[in-house]
Amino acid sequence: MFFVLITHLPKAEEGIPYSWQGYIEVSQKMLTTAGSSSSGEVTTRWKLNINWKETNKNDIKDKNGRLVGQLIKLEDNGSTWKGTVTGGFAQASQDISYEGQGSGNNNTISFVWIYYSLSDKDPLKDVLPNGSYCIGANPESVATFNETITYIDRDRGSTRSSTMPVFLNYFVGGKNLSMPFGHIKGPDLAGPISTETIKECVTRGAQAMAAIQATNSWDTEARVIEDGVMKGHYSRTAFNDTLINELSWDISKVMDVSGVIEKPDKNWRPLGGDENNSIKIKAKIKDNSELKGKWKFTLFEASKEKGYAMNKGDSTDYDLNFVENQSDYAKGSEAMTTESTKAMNSTEVEIQSLDYGAWGKLKAEVNIEGTWYKCKTEDGKDYITIPFDDNENHIADKWEEKYEVSGESADSDNDNKPEGVGSNKEAGDGFTNYEEYRGFFVNGEWEDTDPKYKDLFIYDELGFGIGKFTDLKLQIHLIDQNEFDSERYVNFNRGYGTLLTQNGQKGLYICGRTMEAVYGAVSSVVGSPNVVDRVYINAMLLMSDPMNPMVRSAKNLRGGARESIFHEELDSIIAHELGHAVNLLHHGEDSVDRDRCYRADISPDSVAVTGGKWSGDVKCIMRYNPPLNYLGWDNKFYDYPENEEGASRTIFCDNKEGTGINAPPNRMDEDGKPYPVAGNATYGECKKNVTLKGNHYYGDVPGF
Amino acid sequence: MFKKKVLFIGIVFIFSLVYIILQMSSGKITKKIVEPLDVALYYVQGPDDGSSCVSVGIFSKILKQEKIDDQIKGSDGKSKTKQRDDKLYYEIDKSMWQDEVLFWALDENGKKNKIKKGIKLISSPDGGRLYFTADSFYNAIYEIENNSLPKQGNKIYAEVTIGKNVIISNTVAIPAKLSGECENIIKKAEVETFLGNYDNLMPIAEKLISIKGASYLGYWYKGLALENEKDYKSALSLFETALKKYHQPSQDNILYEPPILLAKKIKELKKITRR
What residue numbers bound the domain in which A452 lies? Predict the structure, then answer.
């Protein structure tokens, strides 16, 4: 005997999973008997959103062992249902009402089977045509909800109620093999079934069902799938027209394919410039290792930040791309897509990062038999973020975890370290979390910065360093000339996540200047880095002035020893001027009226007064080198003490208290000089007054 | 056959090893030190009809950064310091400052031209092994004729070749021409001071005093000239006069800083004259 495979038969044999999706609407109406004293009706309605999957596939073989067909069993796979009951009856002495509703998942069937004939000479052709199907819902196994029955006794005026379960109950395809699994032996229909068994089931089942159908008003038709769709409607009455069952259904066969796209490695973060890096993303067809399809990956919502770090590059192209010339992949027909050149069950695509702050989303689709199926992540999203970024703030989650800023937004600027440096009223350093994550080039090398630690970028054109400015413990970065722009903005490639409260954050610019009477200066005001234009150091100090005692004490005089050692005093001077550039004032102002300078040898510009420039903690860098004279508390001028008693100018003070020669109380020393020299500072508290962000002038400190 | 092959490879390996050790011990192969240095160009503008001067300094920004990182390291700080086992040094011939330091002019279009004439090396460190620490700074001073410099707004930079490394300095913009006689005299004084030509300062200082006696500058430079001549008493008097005249408005916030340098000179000279 010659068998021909019918082309529209199921693709299950090809390893393609199918499911059945659609709806069933069930209405069961109970009426009163005609002529009775009762009246009313009760209606139960069910709406089932069907999602069934194909499970068992049993071969049907004739007595010669030839395959003639397949019996397919379906199971619920996530259907949902809703049910309601409303109505009531009015009887002679009482009214009865029925109310209830319920909903749930699954439990829409007790069985569904389909028979597919695989032979044009099928011995079952007459009793079970190709595509026959049968659906049944047994009260014991399907959806239920409770209804409340209320009895109102009109004579006595009493009310009572009770609760009863309502069962889903319907049947489709009554003339087909009704209950095959109940008649076929063997565990869960394992192994082939003979055509004889099927015939017997059909015969016996039909007999059994005939009686049931008569009383249950179920479907009495033979049902056959047409064009891959189970569709139909019936209305049946029973029990002397007191029960009307109505059923509509429309359930289509769909390919049950889904893909999985894996999230990127959490430890990966994007790099840019010469360090550009890539990451491989995996995707596969879910729960099926044999099915193959064509793959398409799409990058979308990808960043186009200017440059490739906060202070490097100027490109505004996409920061993420597909790596070119990947095996089995070619550029897609749409922008930012790539498509596989062959069908695969699982795949891998490589994304290249061109920016240290690159971000984007990637979706994957697989095409099977002309239909694109979306891939989903384990948490149900149909895209992944690159890098791994569950809160989607464009900062890699791993980086946020490392610095414990996971709960903050990309534009947060909450640096609060080092402790005690800067006002409590204004945290931050002018660089947001995203900017610190994207990072900066410092002396030619990229680095990201700690979002909890205040950063300050300094371009030291002189090469003298920053001296004792390190006492503030700020995170200092010595940048190159091209690592801030002509306006000194360090984050000149700012864009996403930048601070909107200011127009960028500037670095400091230390440069040389020939000055005759002072060691250094800032221009044009004392203030925060955003307002101080230059930090000037008297370059002559080290480079050429052999008369300068500072240079004289260094090893390297011109034409002499080779190495210059930066003098401790120069280190203090540089730190002092840098202090002015982070908004630190002197400890006070000296205002000696020239008319009061009754002594001809005294210059008012070199006299210390109480609460003036030389007041406060004698170790503080913001006190300058000693003047020539001081005005004592007795209102007389004295030579400034040679020995300042512990003055070192090595630290930034954290209070206003005078120390050493400035320490209280008022007293006269042995040689008749009054102390303290300058007493407590008027300003002082230098650490607290450090201001890095915003525009602050002359010691104006947020919150004070 | 296989044993012979192994034996041959072993002999070649041993000979190679011995050769490398011998080469290293003879100094032909040394441990490679590739550490970027940095060049700082500092420009001192001279009078319009004279010369300007520049300092070309070599230092290591990396070492400075490492020192900074170490200094801020503490309970609150973090260090990025790499462990450095080797001292950083370069063998530098004294002639390098003459032969391997080139000056370039850069126009507004980014076109560069070598400055070929009018450059004179005034002073430089000796040759030999230069060790670099975070605090090292080696500089040479050059005099450059103003007519060799590019026009106002264009930039200059230095290119220093040390061994195989070519290091580019910062760029410096050439400032505008000076506005008058007084400014030219001041610039001349600055250049002479920078070049260490204190012997030339006296006539310049006296000219400055004669045309701008209210300024402290003439007295400052005259004080420097007298200090150089070891006439400390006169120098002290000049610096004291300068200090009294110092009180005058100035650009930037220079006024904000007290004239400590003057005070320091006075203190030192007082000590000397007391002796």
Answer: 407-412+423-432+439-580
Q: Is B151 on the interface with A (CB under 8 A)?
A: no
Across the range A617-631, mean pLDDT stands at 91
CATH superfamily to which B181-274 belongs: Tetratricopeptide repeat domain (1.25.40.10)
* Pairwise pLDDT comparison (B255 vs B241), residue with the higher score: B241
Give residue A27's pLDDT: 95
- For residues A53 and A23, membership in a common domain is answered with yes
In a domain, A667, yes or no: yes
Q: Which residues of A526-545 are buried (b: 16+ CB within 10 A; e: fewer)?
A: bbbbbbbbbbbbbbbbbbbb
Are A285 and A346 in contact, with CB atoms under 8 Å apart? yes
Q: Which helix (H) or strand (E) holds A245?
A: strand A243-255
CA dist B215 and A130 (Å) reads 114
Closest CA in chain A for residue B54: A543
What's the distance, Cα to Cα, between the start and end of chain B in Å? 93
- pLDDT recorded at residue A598: 57
Maximum CA extent, chain A: 135
> If you average pLDDT over residues A295-324, what whole number do you get?
97
Asked if residue A472 belongs to a domain, the reply is: yes
Q: Of A212, A230, A255, which closes a domain?
A: A255
Question: Which stretch of A152-156, A373-377, A541-545, B262-266 has the lowest confidence by average pLDDT?
Answer: A541-545
Write the class of the CATH domain B38-77+85-173: mainly beta
User: Both A387 and A447 in a single domain?
Assistant: no
> Residue A208: enclosing H or E segment and its boundaries?
helix A195-216
Q: Do A163 and A29 share a structural domain?
A: yes
Candidates A464, A475, A625; nearest CB to B260: A625
Residue A672 domain-assigned? yes
Is some CB atom of chain A closer than 8 A to the CB atom of B231?
A: no
Which tokens go with A443? 């002396």
Domain boundary, last residue among A553, A580, A607 = A580
Residues A33 and A137 reside in one and the same domain: yes
Angstrom CA distances, A187 to A51, A63, A163, A191, B103, stand at: 25, 21, 38, 9, 94
Among A633-647, A648-662, B63-77, the range scoring the smallest mean pLDDT is B63-77
Average pLDDT across chain A, whole number: 87
Tell me the mean pLDDT in the region A311-337: 94
Q: What is the pLDDT of residue A348?
A: 96
Test mutation, A518, A534, A698, chain B, max B CBs within 10 A: A518
Chain A residue numbers touching B124 (CB-CB < 8 A): 559
Q: Is B205 helix (H, G, I), strand (E, B) or coil?
A: helix
What is the pTM for the complete model shown? 0.77
Share the mean pLDDT of chain B: 82
pLDDT above 90: residue B72? no
Same domain, A453 and A540: yes
User: Does residue B19 contact residue B12 with C-beta atoms inside 8 Å?
Assistant: no
Interchain pair B258, A443: CB under 8 A: no
Bigger pLDDT: B163 vs A527: A527
Per-residue model confidence as pLDDT tens digits over A5-22 = 333 344 344 456 788 999
Q: Quick check: A580 and B65 CB within 8 A? A: no
State the complex-level ipTM. 0.85
Contacts of A539 in chain B (CB under 8 A): 42, 44, 55
Do both A613 and A559 map to the same domain? no
Q: Does residue A530 fall inside a structural domain?
A: yes
How many domains are contained in chain A? 4
Domain ranges, ordered by start, for chain B: 38-77+85-173, 181-274
Same domain? For A428 and A395 the reply is no
Contact A566 B137 (CB under 8 A): yes
User: For A134-182, how does the pLDDT look when each residue is reduced to its tens digit (9 = 90+)?
Assistant: 898 866 667 899 999 999 998 888 999 999 999 888 888 877 665 554 4
pLDDT tens figures, A356-385: 999 999 999 999 877 889 999 999 999 999
Report chain A's C-alpha Rg in angstroms: 44
Do A569 and A595 lie in a common domain?
no
